[in-house]
């Protein structure tokens, strides 16, 4: 006999036997005939459904009448049941109706599941909704019954409910088919009921209600049981009160709440309808569960829970349990909830009660690889389908693989396997994959260190044991030369003395004593040659976080983060200073995006930054300007660190570094403008000349911003322009002239940019390039700007206009500005006079800005430096754009040089040499900024570049240069 025939034979045998029993149970023959095939199918798959058919004929008839096999509207089913309870007059009747409804709906659900009429996702949702309905229906009836006798507890938001927290899978809307339900009860305020003659205390009222509700659900009657109710997750467990008021809950979780309770509370869901009271309860629980920043203080607790799980697996030998066994359902849940505890405080989108959205979000946030998450989800639902099938077979709370052949074949049949052995083979693969993810979740401390050589032990001794310098030097003689070891000894000794002056608490001290040997070890492994300059940098970061144990834990628990920190600090004093000043940047090292393929398309990068900024701003209340300003600054710091790290790692060329820094500034400027516009228009209304979505406002970027050449820490040269007609006013309750409105708008933008918050300044914005400089209006009219440029501007101001462009504003204003800029730049000028003015201005700048006593090269101001190239470019534009208008097309030096070559102003070779020289000088300048240095050391490459620039300068301006 074939395997398929054997499988079908066993199921068919039971189907035939159970069909005979149902046929003899007294049902109308026409009803059975109509559903014969369907009934025989389920009778072979579930003794539970067969039992309902044999013992609850009214229930089973209703299932058949309601077309169980069709897609059902579960919400309507639940609503009809609630209406049915309105006719109940006694608690005894309530208990009967609850149990009959549960039997009816769970049997119908099992029928749909075992015959694969719906997905497991739908089944989990339906099971949870049915549970919600049964619990709340019982509660509502009992509450209404109880207030008739004792009166109703009143509060500031009206009648006080008993809030029911569904925990675990019930809270996550992922309830098992046959499951306990974990509940916690709470009520808002102490006080008395409003009974006119015999009021009772609210505590007494709600305790009685809780006892009645538990009995209504938990009690086993001739009609069965609704749910086994477990209350042990409440404060103080079995010894605590059945129900507690909000203030008591808050005190408990603030003062005594334990890590496992935080873990349990992740899925806590208020089953009652939304209300002010339910919002209050959520507000109490949220800060207990989720810390504001990345919470690595929970790592030890998560590790302990993981160890307990592994110990339980070994002790109980749970090899055939698809929930509690290695690679079972619990490990998937633990995986997701651990990440929620660690990251959920900062990434509020992880604060979901449901598993699936959390797993998807982990992939979106790049905390876990997308492919791994997709596989984990598929494996999870495979396990949940198997679990439901096991429980639906006989309505038993079991996750154990079956011993009897019938159940085995039902399992194989429902999950679409040819036989049970094929199911087991796939199950083994699924659970192995899940367990692998579980094991990788929190590495045991020392896992990596056990693979390290003896150097780690010696680094541990170097930190923890007091020793003389000679002993220290000898200890590390194979890793450092004597001079470096001596310097390291002095640095470590000094740092220890410095730490002794700080109060960091026992926990912080313990973590630091684990961390510091790792710091020294990885430093000596990665970059021993830089240890003398590197260790003080690392110490400066660690000193900044000694009072913030979370970050010490982050470095200790994540060797990869510590390694990245060491690498970045070794390469960059600037990055060191950024992380020291803003430790939140350590979070960025958890997912080092700079090691990945870099996106360099300007439009794509702009959209990426815009989308990320928009998502980060969703965490902030729209009216909370201070927090919004802080969010912008944190966003800039994080993105800037990623760019700098990409720069250091070599994954991003210098031109693309400046592009990204420039786009970042543009995106933030747009956000600042949007906020400023909203704030100013709320107060004054918008100018009355505007139509549709116009703002009548333009932001022009000059200098590095205009030329797509921003560097680290660059300020923004801005000019604000408006087009309001004379006499225009605002439309708000507090009217001002349009001119005043735009000045106030400019002031607000400057405030949002320049103000220092905890995360520093967003950008230092400079308006000195506006018409008339510091004495001019903060925001000038378009006609005033035009008049000034045509009639009053100096040559150096027209030079500045070469690198000016519209950053954002109305299309009409952008077009007008471009036309004005082009008309100014394409004016015909006397070349000799222009060259003379350009050279005089260059020499004046060099005299004023170049430090002749400096030990090194100022790459911007020195002869043959960056500014020399910029001045030549500006000269070519101002001198020849009337002949070659293409010179005005772009504001950046590289593309202007390309156009100058095409115009014949210099040869292709000269253009290429100047472009390469410009890129080389800027690259060195960027690296100086990252290294925290101002002056470069002369070398062959720099001298070659400067010679190219100086030679070209001589060819352009040689005839008018002053004689030496």
From TrEMBL:
The species this protein belongs to is: Alteromonas lipolytica
Task: Output the GO biological process annotations, alphabetical, semicolon-separated.
Answer: regulation of glutamine family amino acid metabolic process
Region Adenylyl transferase: start and end of each range?
456-964
Report which residue ranges the record marks as coiled coil: none
Alphabetical GO CC annotations of the entry are: cytosol
Give the E.C. number(s): 2.7.7.89, 2.7.7.42
Q: Where is the Glutamate-ammonia ligase adenylyltransferase repeated domain?
A: 39-281, 562-819
Q: Which GO terms describe its molecular function?
A: [glutamate-ammonia-ligase] adenylyltransferase activity; [glutamine synthetase]-adenylyl-L-tyrosine phosphorylase activity; ATP binding; magnesium ion binding
Q: State what protein this is by name.
A: Bifunctional glutamine synthetase adenylyltransferase/adenylyl-removing enzyme
UniProt record similarity statement: Belongs to the GlnE family.
Ranges for domain PII-uridylyltransferase/Glutamine-synthetase adenylyltransferase come to 303-441, 855-934
- Report the function annotation for this chain: Involved in the regulation of glutamine synthetase GlnA, a key enzyme in the process to assimilate ammonia. When cellular nitrogen levels are high, the C-terminal adenylyl transferase (AT) inactivates GlnA by covalent transfer of an adenylyl group from ATP to specific tyrosine residue of GlnA, thus reducing its activity. Conversely, when nitrogen levels are low, the N-terminal adenylyl removase (AR) activates GlnA by removing the adenylyl group by phosphorolysis, increasing its activity.
Keyword Disulfide bond in the entry? The reply is: no
Q: Which domain of life is it from?
A: Bacteria
Could you tell me which residues belong to the region Adenylyl removase?
1-446
User: NCBIfam families per the record?
Assistant: PRK11072.1
């Amino acid at each position: 006999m074939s395997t398929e025939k054997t499988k079908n034979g066993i199921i068919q045998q039971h189907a035939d036997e159970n069909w005979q029993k149902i046929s003899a149970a007294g049902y109308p023959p026409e009803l059975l005939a109509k559903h014969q095939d369907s009934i025989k199918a389920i009778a072979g798959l579930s003794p539970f459904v067969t039992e309902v058919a044999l013992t609850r004929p009214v229930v089973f008839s209703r299932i058949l009448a309601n077309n169980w096999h069709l897609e059902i509207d579960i919400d309507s089913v639940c609503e009809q049941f609630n209406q049915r309870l309105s006719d109940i007059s006694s608690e005894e009747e309530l208990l009967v109706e609850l149990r009959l409804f549960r039997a009816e709906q769970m049997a119908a659900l099992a029928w749909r599941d075992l015959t694969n009429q719906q997905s497991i996702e739908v089944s989990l949702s339906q099971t949870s909704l049915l549970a919600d309905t049964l619990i709340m229906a019982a509660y509502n009836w009992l509450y209404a019954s109880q207030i008739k006798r004792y009166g109703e507890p009143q509060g500031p938001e009206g009648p006080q409910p008993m809030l029911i927290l569904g925990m675990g899978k019930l809270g996550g809307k992922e309830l098992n088919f046959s499951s306990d339900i974990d509940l916690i009860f709470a009520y808002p305020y102490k006080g008395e009921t409003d009974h006119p003659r015999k009021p009772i205390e609210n505590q007494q009222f709600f305790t009685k209600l809780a006892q009645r509700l538990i009995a209504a659900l938990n009690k086993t009657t001739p009609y069965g049981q609704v749910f086994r109710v477990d209350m042990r997750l409440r404060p103080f467990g079995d010894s605590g009160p059945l129900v507690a008021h909000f203030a008591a809950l808050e005190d408990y979780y603030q003062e005594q709440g334990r890590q496992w309770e935080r873990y349990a509370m992740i899925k806590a869901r208020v089953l009652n309808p939304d209300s002010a009271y339910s919002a209050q309860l959520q507000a109490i629980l949220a800060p207990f569960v989720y810390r504001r920043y990345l919470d690595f203080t929970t790592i030890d607790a998560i590790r302990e829970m993981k160890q307990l799980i592994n110990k339980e697996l070994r002790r109980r030998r749970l090899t055939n349990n698809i929930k509690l066994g290695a690679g079972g359902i619990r490990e998937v849940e633990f995986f997701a909830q651990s990440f929620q505890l660690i990251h959920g405080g900062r990434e509020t989108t992880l604060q979901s009660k449901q598993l699936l959205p959390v797993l998807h979000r982990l992939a979106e946030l790049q905390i876990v690889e997308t492919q791994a998450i997709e596989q984990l989800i598929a494996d999870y639902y495979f396990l949940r389908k198997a679990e439901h099938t096991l429980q639906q077979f006989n309505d038993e709370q079991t996750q154990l693989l079956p011993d009897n052949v019938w159940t085995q074949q039902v399992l194989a049949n429902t999950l679409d396997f040819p036989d049970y052995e094929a199911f087991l083979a796939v199950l083994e693969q699924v659970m192995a994959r899940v367990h692998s993810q579980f094991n990788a979740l929190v590495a045991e401390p020392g896992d990596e260190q056990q693979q390290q050589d003896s150097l780690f032990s010696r680094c541990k001794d170097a930190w923890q044991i007091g020793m003389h310098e000679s002993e220290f030097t000898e200890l590390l003689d194979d890793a450092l030369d004597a001079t470096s070891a001596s310097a390291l000894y002095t640095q470590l000794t000094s740092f220890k003395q410095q730490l002794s002056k700080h109060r960091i608490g026992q926990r912080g001290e313990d973590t630091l004593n684990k961390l510091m040997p790792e710091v020294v070890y990885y430093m000596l492994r990665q970059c021993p040659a830089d240890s003398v300059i590197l260790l003080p940098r690392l110490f400066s970061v660690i000193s900044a976080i000694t009072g913030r144990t979370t970050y010490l834990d982050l470095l200790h628990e994540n060797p990869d983060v510590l390694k990245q920190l060491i690498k970045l600090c070794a390469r960059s004093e600037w990055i060191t200073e950024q992380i020291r000043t803003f430790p939140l940047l350590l979070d960025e090292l958890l997912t080092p995006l700079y090691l990945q393929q870099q996106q360099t398309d300007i439009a794509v990068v702009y959209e990426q930054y815009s989308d990320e900024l928009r998502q980060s701003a969703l965490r902030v209340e729209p009216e909370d300007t201070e927090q919004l300003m802080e969010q912008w600054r944190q966003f800039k710091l994080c993105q800037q660190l990623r760019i700098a790290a990409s720069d250091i790692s070599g994954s991003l060329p210098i031109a693309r570094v400046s592009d990204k820094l420039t786009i970042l500034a543009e995106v933030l400027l747009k956000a600042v403008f949007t906020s400023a516009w909203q704030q100013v228009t709320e107060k004054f209304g918008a100018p009355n000349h505007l139509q549709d979505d116009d703002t009548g406002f333009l932001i022009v970027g000059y200098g590095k911003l205009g030329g797509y050449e921003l560097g680290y820490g660059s300020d923004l040269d801005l000019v604000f322009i408006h087009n309001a007609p004379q006499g225009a006013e605002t439309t708000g309750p507090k009217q001002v002239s349009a001119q005043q409105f735009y000045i106030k708008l400019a002031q607000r933008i400057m405030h949002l940019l320049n103000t220092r918050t905890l995360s520093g300044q967003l950008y230092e914005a400079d308006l000195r390039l506006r018409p008339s400089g510091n004495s001019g209006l903060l925001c000038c009219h378009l006609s005033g700007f035009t008049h000034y440029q045509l009639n009053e501007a100096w040559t150096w101001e027209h030079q500045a206009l070469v690198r000016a462009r519209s950053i954002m504003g109305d299309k009409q204003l952008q077009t007008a500005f471009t036309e004005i800029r082009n008309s100014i730049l394409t004016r015909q000028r006397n070349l000799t006079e222009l060259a003379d003015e350009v050279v005089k201005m260059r020499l004046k700048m060099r005299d004023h800005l170049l430090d002749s006593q400096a030990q090194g090269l100022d790459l911007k101001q020195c002869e043959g430096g960056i500014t020399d190239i910029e001045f030549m470019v500006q000269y070519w534009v101002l001198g020849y754009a009337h002949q070659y208008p293409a010179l005005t097309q772009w504001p950046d030096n590289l593309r202007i040089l390309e156009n100058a070559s095409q115009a014949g102003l210099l040869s292709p070779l000269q253009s290429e040499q100047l472009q390469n020289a410009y890129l080389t000088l800027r690259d060195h300048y960027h690296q100086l900024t990252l290294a925290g240095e101002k002056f470069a050391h002369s070398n062959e490459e720099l001298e070659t570049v400067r010679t190219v620039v100086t030679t070209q300068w001589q060819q352009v301006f040689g005839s008018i240069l002053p004689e030496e």
